[in-house]
Amino acid sequence: MDPAELRSRVEELEWFHSIDLGGGVVTPGRDDSAAKLARLRLPADLSGRSVLDIGAWDGFFSFEAERRRAERVLAVDTLAWERGEKSGRPCFELAHRALGSRVESRRLDVHDVATAGIGRFDLVLCLGVLYHLREPLRALEAVATNTTTITQSPAARVFMSQTPVLTVHSRIVRAQDTGANSIV
User: Fold this and answer.
1) Where are the alpha helices (DSSP H) in 2-161?
2) Is the CB of residue 143 less than 8 Å from the CB of residue 113?
3) How do residues 91-124 score in pLDDT, each as one tens digit?
4) In DSSP terms, which residues pair with 143 in a beta bridge?
5) What distance in Å separates the CA atoms of residue 56 and residue 180, rounded to the nearest whole number?
6) Tens of pLDDT, residues 44-90
7) What pTM does this model have?
8) pLDDT score at 64
9) Which domains does the chain have, with CATH numbers?
10) Is the peptide bond before 164 cis (omega within 30 degrees of 0)?
């Protein structure tokens, strides 16, 4: 797709994330995803790692994990991907195509990740999801069953955009008001 055609398609959609699609085309998202990314302090190199992006929306964080050389990235969403023909899934698909991405995608509710047969992940992004849920702790338990660790700690690495931060370890959940944005 040439840049003029891509720009035209981008303008037809309603974007949540600002994503650089190359060729001078950047999606006009309303979320300050770059600032969130900086606060997350993700490893610069995710080589050999697997990443699960829960609540992927347009895919900014999924595509960023891929750019950082993650071996496998799975983007999942339900709410945002069921928004219609102008936002959510259509935005993700256009960005995916424009970037020549190999990110996998699947419509999947966060509560179902433990039983969906999607495998285990070294890193889980769960950004802007929990405050939408009726049972956020049940969702965290489901996420924890699909998470391995990329640190020496036995705790799982799960990055979230909400505060306070939660620590999940051996099914124990405790709130910490640390100002950080990760489950460590």
Assistant:
1) 3-12, 33-40, 60-67, 89-99, 136-145
2) yes
3) 999 999 999 999 999 999 887 888 888 888 888 8
4) none
5) 21
6) 999 999 999 988 999 999 999 999 999 999 999 998 888 888 999 99
7) 0.79
8) 97
9) 33-183 (3.40.50.150)
10) yes
Tokens of 103: 């990110």
The CB density around residue 183, as the number of other CB atoms within 10 Å, is 23
Residues 146, 116: Cα–Cα separation, whole Å: 10
C-alpha span between 129 and 132 (Å, rounded):
6
Other Cβ atoms closer than 10 A to 107: 10
Residues present in the chain in total: 184
Q: Report the candidate in 24, 1, 28, 23 with the shortest Cα–Cα distance to residue 12.
A: 28
Amino acid letter for position 65: A
Closest to 105 (Cα-Cα) out of 162, 51, 149, 32:
51
Position of tokens 């195509």? 97
